[in-house]
Amino acid sequence: xxxxxxxxxxxxxxxxxxxxxxxxxxxxxxxxxxxxxxxxxxxxxxxxxxxxxxxxxxxxxxxxxxxxxxxxxxxxxxxxxxxxxxxxxxxxxxxxxxxxxxxxxxxxxxxxxxxxxxxxxxxxxxx
Length: 127
Fold this sequence. Notes:
Order of helices and strands: EEEEEEEEEE
Number of helices: 0
Strand content: over 45%
Strand order of the largest sheet: 2-10-9-4-5-6
Number of strands: 10
Radius of gyration: 13 Å
Mean pLDDT: 95
Largest sheet: 6 strands, mixed
């Protein structure tokens, strides 16, 4: 059975960096686009980034453009989210989800478009 597992979160000071991983078990990620969403306490889940099957198509939320980079290694069935110049407002639980999507573009407007969410990984940015 396909499962996604997020890891790499932690406590970091403002301006610091973290790299999150989203690993699949039970299947490869070769046929799926992957999205990262995050949810802060009391807030709705919001889209952060997504990447297409080929890796050529990526999308970022305006709030993370220029700071976050999404990438994938299909040979390892893993997608990464490199987060630099972290800010306190990036504090949230980060989740990855997937969908079967053959286009070379993706959107992160609606979390319900994505499925097979992992358990999430906590990112806390604080001094």
